[in-house]
Amino acid sequence: MQKEQVIIVGAGPSGLAMAACLNHHSIPYIILEREDCIASLWKKYAYDRLHLHLDKQFCVLPHMPFPDSYPRFVSRQQFVSYLDDYVSRFKISPLYRRTVESAEFDGETGKWIVKARNLGSGEVEELEGRFLVVASGETSNPFTPVIEGLNTFPGEVLHSTRFRNGKAFQNQKVLVVGSGNSGMEIAFDLANHGAQTSLVVRSPVHILSRDMIYLGLILVKYIRVNLVDSLMVMLSKLVYGDLSKYGINRPKEGPFFMKAVYGKYPITDIGTCKKIKSQEIQVILFSFFLPITLLHFLVIVVDTVNLIQLKIDNLIGNLEEKGIECTRVCNNNVNQKSW
Ligand SMILES: Cc1cc2nc3c(=O)[nH]c(=O)nc-3n(C[C@H](O)[C@H](O)[C@H](O)COP(=O)(O)OP(=O)(O)OC[C@H]3O[C@@H](n4cnc5c(N)ncnc54)[C@H](O)[C@@H]3O)c2cc1C
């Protein structure tokens, strides 16, 4: 069995940041990554027009600033190139094509036993580590819900991880299912490319501009979350008005509270609201009957669930019940300590 000081699961931005910090303190580690590259979400599973939704100061990884030439909102390509440079600078070499299937804590030895499937040979490899870092992301497993009538739907169904841009959808009727940040932005992109776009909205959402979020992230370091939330809601009402007539309702709880407690992000508006107001994008309430047979395409953008994260969370709960202290080292965001 291979023995390591620290085992990191996942070579996304969080896993890489962790590796660089360990490197900085000369602590040996190994990264297990199921894909064949670092930052697969950004390299393989994101749409073309994606930019970091937050100012670069909130997304930079430890020990290496973004290049000065980068704009305030870093594009996907720029972020990928920054991460590639990061990996070279800190000499990070993940073990690719290893899917971690289980991690168990042995109370007697005080070590983690991690089992990872080698996707090349198909064999399960066992590793032992003193520390385990789960950096497997919160949106890394695409999820397609069961939708009645989908198996007889004559059009094309596409998960958002396979959506690149709206070019191919001109004049097509497209329904986007899911109104988080990706759904809103994909709907915007589709409408920009001349698709007849509709968007299914299930739950109330907060819609904030990039500048409002920037202000909120600064203020939340100094004043109470409920005060920041009141300001955010007031600004959102001033800028976007009452969106309920277009089918978008505001939650009762504030945006920063909801992020902290439920992990639910507010929507960063990059122009979708204007298109909703001008009815270029139609909002359809989730409870309504969806005449999907009238559509050409269905783009699915719903919450993704990361199973390993859930299993580890259960495990941590069990260990804590037994009085074993656990620290969650990595969060799902790059560097958003204040969220
Ligand atoms: C549209 C969009 C916009 C975003 N904008 C921002 C932003 O502006 N700022 C920001 O900070 N964040 C943003 N995010 C959040 C995004 O999740 C983070 O930027 C970042 O990718 C999270 O990094 P991570 O390393 O935690 O997770 P991920 O990037 O998801 O990486 C997890 C890695 O773990 C690997 N993995 C998963 N399970 C296993 C397993 N069992 N075994 C081995 N490997 C495994 C995956 O293959 C993946 O490479 C955005 C996300 C999306 C989708």
Automatic annotation (TrEMBL):
**Taxonomic lineage per UniProt?**
Eukaryota, Viridiplantae, Streptophyta, Embryophyta, Tracheophyta
What are the UniProt keywords, alphabetically? Answer: Auxin biosynthesis, FAD, Flavoprotein, Membrane, Monooxygenase, NADP, Oxidoreductase, Transmembrane, Transmembrane helix
Q: Report the EC number(s), separated by commas if there are several.
A: 1.14.13.168
The cofactors required by this protein are: FAD
| Source species, domain of life | Eukaryota
One family from Pfam that matches here is Pyr_redox_3
Q: Does the record carry Endoplasmic reticulum as a key word?
A: no
What are the recorded GO MF terms, alphabetically?
A: flavin adenine dinucleotide binding; indole-3-pyruvate monooxygenase activity
Q: What's the protein name?
A: indole-3-pyruvate monooxygenase
InterPro entries (alphabetical): Auxin_biosynth/cation_transpt, FAD/NAD-bd_sf
Stated family:
Belongs to the FMO family.
Q: Which residues cross the membrane?
A: 283-302
Look at the named UniProt entry and state the broad enzyme category this protein falls under. Answer: oxidoreductase
- Keyword Oxidoreductase listed? The answer is yes
Task: Please state the pathway this protein functions in, per its UniProt record.
Answer: Plant hormone metabolism; auxin biosynthesis
- What is catalysed by this protein? indole-3-pyruvate + NADPH + O2 + H(+) = (indol-3-yl)acetate + CO2 + NADP(+) + H2O
